[in-house]
Amino acid sequence: MSAPTLPTCLGVPAASDALAAPVTLDRRVGPYGEIVLRRRGELLEIIANGCFLMDTSDGRSERLLIDAARDLLPPEREAPAVLVGGLGVGFSLAHAAADPRWGRIVVVERERAVIDWHRSGPLGGVSGAALSDPRTVILHTDLVEYVRTTTDRYDALCLDIDNGPDWTVTEDNGNLYTPSGLAACRARLNTGGVLAVWSANPSSAFADTLRNAGFGDVRSEEVRVARGVPDVVHLGVRTA
After folding, report:
1. Does 227 score more than 80 pLDDT?
2. Whose CB among 62, 104, 197, 208 lies 3.0–4.6 Å from 234's, allowing a Cys bridge?
3. Strand 215-223 to strand 51-55: parallel, antiparallel, or no bridges (unpaired)?
4. How many Å is the Cα radius of gyration of the chain?
5. Alpha carbons 145 and 150: distance in angstroms, whole number
6. Average pLDDT of 16-41?
7. What is the value of pTM for the model shown?
8. What is the mean pLDDT of residues 50-70?
9. Where do the H-state alpha helices sit in 1-48?
10. In what order do the strands lie in the sheet with 82-85?
């Protein structure tokens, strides 16, 4: 696989905000290092250990993460439960909560700062209605550990905790995309359930890993971006 067009430490703000100087709104140091919330023009950005993670400029691929998983579910599945891995800037949660088909909506986020920025900070403008939705539950825990230890089951796992399977935010996250990590994800799904994984670049190798881990109907959907390779949602179904 070719290397990503941009290294993870280089953020790409929207063109209208590219020349705006970033203003730090909050900076914290926790068990996973430093995490910062910045404002750049009209955008809000999350920076982890000096590396750009995401901003509020678009959100199309985060919404696709939710919709693509929903559309692969059996049509007769009523009030399916969805696990959203990573709260981020809130696009995926907000989109799930706006869809009346979803039942329980569980969000796993390991950074207390990110949860605070949504509950009582600027990111509440994205997620406020979703956080007050009675279907929504926020869990402050590590996703990799959670899928290995919980006994809860879901109809969809929508995971966006890294820049992709080949481009993780922290080294430990890489365990999620290994055969054992994907087996743990598969065990959390009901039969017919869908695993959806967000990625900043396509990965044919990861598609093969999904198939080898027992997922069927493996596919990917793309969202074109202004510069570089498209964002991708990798999908697989627990068929039995």
Report:
1. no
2. 197
3. unpaired
4. 17
5. 8
6. 89
7. 0.89
8. 94
9. none
10. 136-140, 105-109, 82-85, 154-159, 189-199, 231-238, 215-223
Cβ burial 208-235 (10 Å sphere, 16+ → b, else e)? ebbeebebeebebbebeeeeebebbbbb
The residue to which tokens 């403008």 are assigned: 125
Residue type, position 110, single letter:
R
Q: What distance in Å separates the CA atoms of residue 238 and residue 233, rounded to the nearest whole number?
A: 16
User: What is residue 200's DSSP assignment?
Assistant: S
Both tokens of residue 61?
Answer: 């691929």
Q: What is the pLDDT of residues 125-162, one digit of tens each?
A: 999 999 999 999 999 999 999 999 999 999 999 999 88
Residue 197 to residue 211: CA distance in whole angstroms: 14
Residue 187 near residue 149, CB atoms below 8 Å: no
Residue 114 predicted with pLDDT over 50: yes
